[in-house]
Amino acid sequence: LPEGRMLVEPPRETATVTVEGGQAFVRGGRQKDLSILVDLSRAKEGEGSLDRAERAVAGMPTQVRVVSIAPSTLKVQLDRVLTRRVNVAAATQGEPAEGFRVAKVTVKPDRVELSGPSTVLRGRGAGSTDVVDVSGLREDAEFEVGRAVKRGQLTATRAERCTVAVQIEAIQKE
Questions:
Q1: How far apart are CA 90 and CA 162, in angstroms?
Q2: Residue 54 Cα distances to 46, 77, 148, 165, angstroms
Q3: Which pLDDT score, from 0 to 100, does residue 14 have?
Q4: Cα dihedral sign for 22, 28, 32, 33?
Q5: Where are the alpha helices (DSSP H) in the chain?
Q6: In contact, 107 and 163? CB cutoff 8 Å
Q7: Using one digit for the tens of pLDDT, what is the confidence trace for 106-148?
Q8: CB 126 within 8 A of CB 84
Q9: What is the DSSP string of 63-75?
Q10: Residues 6+ apart with CB under 8 A from 16
Q11: Rounded Cα gap, residues 81 and 6, in angstroms
């Protein structure tokens, strides 16, 4: 990939390759050893298609000829890499024990730096933690959790975990 660029979505990882050649050679080519190499070093930002039919299949015995590759094209979208600091919100599920409620939830650190394709990161105002289950809680609790990154192309620039502090209070009866 060109410097400062990345794929918006991971490419399709499988293709059907139809081959012909001597039976011993065709059977000798193991599926897991085959790959289609794609050079994106000169690719431009934006969407594009690459014709796989013109690509060599690495790992294919020389006595075997590729007849076809399906799908014959590989769609890719390259974008500029952007790094941005975003707020982190705690993702919670469940309800505290009867007679109690969640009074406050805080996250530390409350901001993280994410890196990813600009089209994905540009509209992202906040990140979130992995889900914290508050079911049945009767007192304050702290949880060490990771950050939930919904899109696989977004990564945290540091591999730090978050601490989610949940304050529980009794519901006052009137």
A1: 9
A2: 21, 19, 39, 56
A3: 77
A4: negative
A5: 23-28, 118-121
A6: yes
A7: 999 888 888 888 887 777 667 788 899 999 999 999 999 887 6
A8: no
A9: TEEEEEEESSEEE
A10: 69, 70
A11: 6
CB 7, CB 76: distance < 8 Å: yes
Phi, psi angles (nearest 5°) of residue 39? -100, 115
Tell me what the mean pLDDT of segment 59-65 comes to.
76
Q: Which residue has the tokens 């012909």?
A: 20
What predicted TM-score, i.e. pTM, was given to this entire model? 0.59
Tokens of 23: 């039976």
The two tokens of residue 118 are 């600009």
- Across the chain, the runs of DSSP E, i.e. the strands, are 5-7, 16-21, 35-36, 46-51, 57-58, 64-70, 73-93, 100-108, 111-117, 126-133, 141-145, 147-148, 155-156, 162-170
Residue 17 to residue 69: CA distance in whole angstroms: 5
